[in-house]
Amino acid sequence: MKILYVDDEESLLEVGKLFLEQNNSKFSIQTCISAAIGLQLLKSESYDVIVSDYQMPSIDGLEFLRIIREDRDDSIPFIIFTGRGREEVAIEALNLGANRYIQKGADIKSQYIVLARAIEQENALWESHKKLFNSEEKHRTLIEAMNDGFAIADTKGNFVYANERLCKILDYSSDEIVGKGIFDFLNEENQQVAINQLSDRKKGADAAYELSWTKKGGEQVPTLVSPKPITDENGAPSGSFAVVTEISELKKAQEELVRANLEEEKVFQTVADGLQIVNTDLAIVKVNEAMLKIIGLKEEEIVGTKCSDLLKGDYCETDECSLNRILNGEKRVEYELTTSRPDGMSMVLTKIISPLTNSNGKVIGLVKTIKDITERKAAEEALYESNEWLSTTLRSIGDAVITTDCEGKITFLNPIATALTGYESEIAIGQPLKEVFKIVNEHTRKPSDNPVEQVLKEGKIVGLANHTILISKEGKEIPIYDAAAPIINNEGIIIGVVLVFQDMTERRKTDKRIERLREFQEITLNISTRQVNLHIDEIEREIVQGLEEISQYFGVDRAYIYLFSERGDMVEKHFSWQSKDAEDSPEIDNFSSKDIPWVMNQLNSQQSVIVENLDESSLEIKQEKEILQPAGIKSTLIVPMIIRGTLIGYLGFHSVIEERIWNSEEIKLLRVTGEIYSNALEKRKAEKVLKESEEKYRKLVETMNDGLAIIDAKSDFNYVNDQLCEMLGYSREELLGTSSIGYFDEQNKAKVIAELKGRKIGVEDPFEVEWRCKNGEKIYTIASPKALFDEEGNHKGSFAVITDITERVKSEESEAFLDMLLRHDVMNKAISVQAYLTIIEQTNLTDDQEKFLQKAMKMNNNSITLIEKIRKLKKLSKDVTRTTNISSLLDTVKSHYQKHIDDNEIEFDYIPVDLMVDGGAFLNELFSNLIENAIYHSECSIIKVRVKEENSKVRIIIEDNGIGVSEEIIGTIFERGTKGIKSSGSGVGLFLTHRIATTYGGDIELKKSELGGARFDVILVKST
C-alpha cells in the first residue's frame, strides 16, 4: 500500500515513517516536507492514501485538501494528522472532504497505531467504492441506452437519477431534473395521481399507471409509468425506480376512436337529444350534455361503465343486443324503453342505435341517440296541474307580476302588482298595460317606453331605463326596476308578455346612504393624505381647512378642537372654524374642566356628548348651559379625542342657527374624524419633540468617541462625524458625496459590498473591516450597522458606528503568532524528541542510561503537558458558558480514572446528586485536575466526593486522607508556578483549575480535610 506522508517537520516525517512501516509491513511510506512537493509527486505517482499535517508554510493542509478534491477532482483517502486541535479546523477539514481528522499527542505509540488503523480502513473503503463505481457504470450504460425513460426517486419523491431518454421526453437536461421533486414536472391534476401512486409505492405496490408530464415548454406528454419500490437492508422503503414509456401515439389513437364520425365536438354537445358513444366492449366512452341531464349523473360517473349498467333494456346481454344486430348487418336499431334513473325516477325513452365506423368502414362502436319522452306522455295530465302551480307561484312571490296577451292587454296581476299600481284585478284585466302601468322618467317627467310593446316588437327580454317612476292610481310616485320577457308557446310563437317589477324606494335610500358614506370617506381620505407629508408649521392650517370640510358635509355652523392642559385642569381652544352665518355669535375660549362636569364624565368614559336642544336639556348639564348658551348654541355634538387610551381633548360641532338632530351613523363618522385629528395632533407633537431632540443628538454624535457615518442607497456618504474624519484623515467636505466603497482595498471592498446587500434585507450584524486612510495606512474597525427604510419599506441607506480596534488587532496578531510558535513549532519539537526517546527506549541500555532516559522522557512529557495547559487557558477565555449536569460530569471523570483508582487500591467514596450548574466543557478539566492530583500526588487510600445544594450555588467537595498541602504553599496554592513537594509538573494545574471556576462565575477553596489530607471545595452557580 503506497502512502504519501506530508509534514513540514522532517523529524516527525522520519519518526512517522519508521513507526508506520513497523506497524504494517504492507505500508510503503513516501515523505515530503511541503504540500507543493506533494502536488508535484501526484502528477507522476499514484498513491493509495494521503496523510498531511495542517499547519504548513505556503500551502497548509486544508488548501492541499481543497486542491486535491476540487481542482484535481480526486477522491483518494485524505487524513489530516496534526497537533492543531481547534474544533473549527476539524469541521472545515471534514467539510472539504477529509476522510479522517486525527490529533497528534504525547503518546507516540498510540497515535501511530490509531493512524495506521485509519489508513487501513480508509483504503479498504476506497477500494470497495471503486468496485461499486465500476459496477454502477456498467448498469448506467445499459440504462442510458434504453428506448424508454428511466428514473430513480427517493421516499420524498425527489429525482436522484434520470436517463437521457427521460430528459428528451421532458425536454429538460439531467441537471435541471435531478434534485427537483416529481411534482415540479406535473400539473395539479397529475400531482394528485402521483401522490396516490407514491403512497402505494411505500406499501410495496408496483402496478403500472398512466401519468401526463409537463414539458419544458408547457406541453403535456402522456406516459405509462412502470414503477418498482426500493427497500433498504431492513426492508424499509428507501425510494423507487420507474420505466417511463411515452404513449402519445397510443393516446392519439384512443382519441380518434372517440372522435370517429363526429365532425365537430360542438355539434355533438349541442344536439338536443342524448347521445352515447360505446365501444365494441359496450363500455361508454363519451356522452353529451343532454344525456347527462336525462340520466342525472356526472360524466365521470358514466364514462367507462357498461351501457347496460346505465340503462338496461330487455335485450341487453342477449343475442338480440343492439351491438350484435349491428354487427349482423342492421344499419339502425330503434325501440322504446321504460326504465328508471339511478335516483329511482321513472322514465320513458326512445333509443336509436347506429354503427360507429373508422375510415376503413370497420365497426368500432355504437352511437346511441336517446330521447326522453316521459314529459310528452304525461303532458296532458300535467298541463292543468302546471297552470295551477304557476298561478299559485306568481301570486306568492315577493315581486310584482303582470302578464299580457299578444296585444298588450293585461291577463293577470298578482297582489304585489295590485298594491303598487292601485288597480284591482277585476278592473285591470282586459285593460291595455299603459292604462294601469303608468311610468315616467324621474327627472324629465316624460312618459317612459312601454316595456310590453318593446318585447312584442323585438321578441326578447327588455328592462326599464334608469330613473323610472311608477305613478299609482292614487298619484303616489314609486321608483321601480323591472324586466319584461316574451311568453312563447311550443311552436315558438309569442303569445304574451310577463312583466316583473320591484319597489326600489328602500333601495334608493340605501344607495343614497352608501353614496353619502362614500363622500365622507373621500373627505377623510383627502384630509389624512394631505396631513401625511406636511411640515409641522403647516399642520395647523390643514386642521382648520379639514374642520371646514367636515362641518359643511354635516351641515353645522361651528367646529372646534379643545385640548386639555398638561395638568388636565384647563380646556384650551386650539383650532376653530365657523360659517359666515354664525359670525355674530360669540365663541367660547378657554375655561376650567371643572365647569363641565357632566361632559367630562362622558368623555372620560369615551362616550360622545349629544345635545339636540340645549334649552330643553336635562338638569345634568346645568353648568354646561352657563357656558354654551351665551355663545348662542342650540345643538351640540362632542366626540372624545383619544391617543393610546388617554383622553387628550375633544372635537366639538355646534349649530347656532337652528337645532340639529344627529343619527347614530353620523356620530360614528364624527368619531372617526376625531381619531384622524388625534393622529394629526400626535404627529405634530412628535415632530416638535423630534425637532427639539435633533439638535441634542447632533451634539452627542459629534462628541462621541466612535466614528459615525450615514450612507444612502447608492452607498455614498450623506453624513460623517468629526471622529470618523479624524480616523480616516479626511475633512468632512472630502468625504461627503463620495462613495464609501472607495475607502477599502479589494478584499475589504468585497466584504463591505456583501454586508450592504445584507442591509437591504434587514441583516444588521456587526462586522470587522479595514479602512484605507488618506496617508495610505490602514486602520482596523468594527462597524455596527443599522438599515434605514422609508415608510413603504424601501431601503434608503444605513448608518453605522465605526469603532477603531487597530491596537487590539495588532495585539491579537502578536499574541496569535506567539501562540502558534508555542503550540506548533515548540509542540512539534517536543513530540519529535518524545518519538526519538521512544525509539531509544527499544534498544539495549545500561541501568544509568535507562534512568537518564526515563528522566528525559518525563521532563519532555511535562513540557508537552504544559503546552496543552497553556492551550486550554487560551481556549478558556473564548469558552461559552452553558449548563452541565454535575452528576453526569463526575461520573465521566471517575470512569476516566477508574483503572488508576483500582491499580492504586484507592477507595472512591462518591454519592451522585442530580443538579445542573452553569459551566462549559472546561469543567471536565477542572475536576480531572483535582482527582488526578489526589491519585498521583497525595499518597492517599481514600478519595471522598460530596455534592451539596446551597441556595443559588452548588458546592462540590473533593477530599482525601493523603499527605495534604504543605503549610508553605497554602496561601499561594492557586497562583501560577506553585506546586507541591511531590509534584514534578509546571505548577499550572491548580492555577488553571482556579481560572476555570472563576470564569464560570464560581470559586475554589482549599480546606483541611477531616480525613487528614487535602480538601478542595468547588463552588459553582446553580442553573435556573
Give the averaged pLDDT, no decimals.
Answer: 82
Instruction: Indicate the multimeric state.
Output: single chain
- Uncertain spans, ≥5 residues at pLDDT below 50? 380-387
Q: How far is the N terminus from the C terminus? A: 56 Å
Number of strands: 40
Estimated radius of gyration:
49 Å
Helix content: 40-55%
Largest sheet: 7 strands, antiparallel
- SSE-based structural type: alpha+beta
**Strand proportion:** 25-35%
The total count of helices amounts to 33
Overall, the morphology is: flat
Question: Could you give a quick summary of the protein structure above?
Answer:
The chain has 1024 residues and is α+β, with helices and mostly antiparallel strands. The protein is 42% helix and 25% strand.
Describe this structure in words.
The chain has 1024 residues and is of the alpha+beta class. Helix content is 42%, strand content 25%. The protein has 33 helices and 40 strands. Strands 16, 17, 18, 19, 20, 21 and 22 form a seven-stranded antiparallel sheet that branches. Strands 25-24-23-28-27-26 form a six-stranded antiparallel sheet. A hairpin with a 5-residue loop joins strand 39 (1003-1008) and strand 40.
